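User: ok so my PI wants both of these folded by tonight, can you help

Assistant: No problem, let's get them done. Here's the first:
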Amino acid sequence: MIDTKALGYVVIETTDLAKWEHFGSRVMGLMVAPSVQEDGVLYLKMDEYPYRFRIVQGEQDRFGAAGWEVAGPQEFAHAVRELEAAGIACERTPAAACKARLLSEMVAFTAPGGLRCELFYYLQLDYLPLVSPVGVKAFVTGFNGTMGLGHIAAATPDLEASHRFFTEVMGFGQTDYLHLHFSPDPADPGQGLHFLHASNPRHHSLALFQSKDPMPGDLVHLMVEVPDLDTLGGFMDRVHSNGVRVITCLGRHTNDRMVSIYVETPAGFALEYGFDGLQLDWSTYVPTFSKRESHWGHRWGQG
């Protein structure tokens, strides 16, 4: 089994780099990364890591890949063997491309259910402070970024196969299972949502959402966390002043206690921007089964 440490970075494809630069820096409060440059690529930084977002010029607006971090070269070699033993085709990234992205080694693969993933180790920390153009002082990523950039929720047409892969091969642990009903029809079976944690205290680094439609690999949302309510409030003001579409109003989730708002990104998937998420001790934690998504708020289409 692989010991997945955290969500190290995300890759996003865009038809308009300028739109993502504005959204990332002027709305989210990230900074354009000073330590890495690549033609046709926008890198955005949020903490001690040189970047957390890799935005690539392309022909579509979509989520590209989740970059999962392992501890070092031995763990990486073990992970590749585990992936190959599970029948996962791994594409090894050339050394020159790894060097350009400040990585030691990396492989890319598609997980069961369609989520595109990259697995890496030693993304070189530059320790440069976040200098946000809109005054965001920090994001919650743990000491030296060890909790990762946040979490993602991915749609899968085969929830069972996706869950089995991420728990039995990638080494994620179960945090919560939520079953949602979007219809009042009593015959509606609803849709399941698994919340999975990596080897860090964040409540979940990955959520797998059961999709009724064939949308393998599509991202439901990406979450970043800030330290306090005032920083979240500032984000909400920037959302309105920049005409960003609000998907849900402010609310507090039940399972991870996150107070957050959801808005639409230039790629079409949602961004959850929140604070006060749980950090847990996995040696004593007992996984939960939930029937309710939020304590309050998170109403669709309300700012």
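One down. Here's the second:
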Amino acid sequence: MTDQKNIAVMHSKNLNSEKAKGTIGKVLAKIATYAFLIFMAIIVIFPFYWMIISSLKTYDEYILSTPTFWPTQKVYWKNYVDAYSAANLGLLFLNTVYVGLVSTLLSLVITVLSAFAFARLEFKGRDSMFAFMLATMMIPGELFTITNYQTVANLGWKNTFTALIVPFLVSIFYIYLLKQNFMQIGTVMNILAKQ
């Protein structure tokens, strides 16, 4: 009887020690995981920190051969005022908002109408036209730079918002995704109609 008690005690001690080892292993794994995540977060955040700190330094401190991690002379907030007034950032921001809104709205209309036509309408040459459009996705966008510039220059659109909006209105990738979505909706509607 005492042997069985001794075995049971030893077995429970082994189980407790194994549980303790498992708990310690889990804690060490969590510590290593969080240490790695913190290290990677510092690597990702550091360029933003450096950009902001550099913008608050005087020019003399900025061009020092030995960089400083905090402005040693003084925090120079006037750099932001100078940058805002020198570059006319208010007007540039409004231009960006205008181009972004107009191009997004026009692109949305073109993409939705094109995708719907390819997904739901039957017309001659639809599949071959869509295949040709998909084939253009294999051409790198950089190859269109010169032809886009020549087109914009020939149409007299240089230095206009039109040159920033029109050449980038059509996205074959978005048309493809939306076409697939419309086709799925059509399939679901057909299944529901049969029930």
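The chain has eight helices and no strands. Helices lie at 2-55, 59-62, 78-87, 89-120, 126-135, 145-154, 162-165, 172-194. Good luck tonight!
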